[in-house]
Specification:
341 residues, alpha/beta, 4-stranded parallel β-sheet, 10 strands, pyridoxal phosphate, P-phosphate_BS, TrpB-like_PALP
């Protein structure tokens, strides 16, 4: 008979992958706060077990499929997802923990580090050429067809509302509790839109006038969608991965409680990536840098004395071959930090 002491985790001990997702720290970002006279806080989502904010969506999607009877823990099943990488990592780890197989479809242009990590953790990785959403060869469409062919569950992170629901149930309430309800604005970038939409619902249910601002890279259409209601891509492009939408509004963003939007160029985002790393010891990726840059803009518009929260989406190590590669940066006309030059 098993020891009764092992039947349930003791206080402070969590149960496996699922128990380790969430409850991440909220970090005061010193430089950004000093520059604005506000308190700017970053939710340290890079501290999730799979290394990114997408662990929450991945777990939420799998648990929703289990509740619907599409998956049964321990029973061999396949989950298919099309992803820029991080959701695929979360899906694969959550699937491993529950006895499922994962097939992950990724554009071949994503960072080498993410692709290597997916292979390392046992994903059946399928690389495809980068195609616009209107093309049937787009990774999202390929993943849907593959799920149908395999008789598998399609995670469908962009339009599966379990994504936003996971953030409404966890991330938003965590931010509210950690700030003791003293939050004036929240901003983050969107790929699927689940993080922003879910957190917005959770915060606005508790404080109706909290300001929700979508952060967007160049080349995406979401900024114009918020500002004008038109889904039209902005000029330019971005080296950030997994954020922005050039031609559509994902299901998770439809009806989202958004007050405003900020468009942030790569150079501005990279300035925050490099500053956080070298001046505050916080190593994050490009989307986190864009989020912090957007939070600074929001804080300046609000004026001193306010509190703005954003998401530190993942760590810098996933982008070493790009964000910290002088050759790559110069080729994109982007600044190279002095310690790499």
């Amino acid at each position: 008979m098993p020891d009764a002491a092992l039947a349930a985790p003791a206080p402070g001990i969590v149960d496996g992958f699922a128990g380790a997702v969430g409850n991440t720290p909220l970090i005061r970002l010193r430089k950004a706060s000093e520059a604005t006279g506000c308190e700017i806080l970053g939710k340290a989502e890079f501290m999730n077990p799979g290394g990114s904010v997408k662990d929450r969506a991945a777990l939420g999607i799998i648990e929703a499929a289990e509740r619907a009877g599409k998956l049964t823990p321990g029973k061999p099943s396949i989950i298919v997802e099309g992803t820029a990488g991080n959701t695929g990592i979360g899906i694969t780890l959550a699937a491993n923990a529950r006895g499922y197989r994962s097939v992950i479809v990724v554009p071949e242009t994503q960072s080498r580090e993410k692709l290597d990590f997916l292979r390392m953790i046992g994903a059946d990785l399928r690389l495809v050429a980068p195609k616009p959403y209107a093309d049937p060869g787009n990774y999202v469409h390929v993943s849907r067809r593959l799920a149908e062919e395999l008789g598998a569950v399609h995670a469908n992170q962009f339009d599966n509302l379990a994504n936003a629901a996971a953030h409404e149930a966890t991330t938003g309430p965590e931010i509210w509790a950690q700030t003791e309800g003293r939050v004036d604005a929240f901003t983050c970038s969107c790929g699927t839109g689940g993080t922003l939409a879910g957190i917005a619902r959770a915060l606005k249910a508790r404080k109706g006038d909290v300001r929700i601002v979508l952060a967007d890279p160049l080349g995406s259409a979401l900024y114009n969608w918020v500002k004008t209601g038109t889904v039209k891509a902005s000029e330019g492009n971005s080296i950030t991965e997994g954020i922005g939408q050039a031609a559509r509004v994902p299901g998770n963003l439809e009806g989202a409680l958004i007050d405003d939007a900020e468009m942030v160029p790569d150079a501005e985002a990279l300035e925050q990536v490099f500053s956080l790393q070298m001046e505050e010891g916080i190593s994050v990726g490009g989307s986190a840098g864009l989020n912090v840059a957007a939070a600074i803009r929001v804080a300046r518009k609000l004026g001193p004395g306010h509190r703005v929260v954003t998401i530190l989406s993942d760590g810098a190590a996933r982008y070493q071959s790009k964000l910290f590669n002088p050759e790559f940066l110069r080729g994109k006309g982007l600044p190279v930090p002095p310690w790499l030059a």
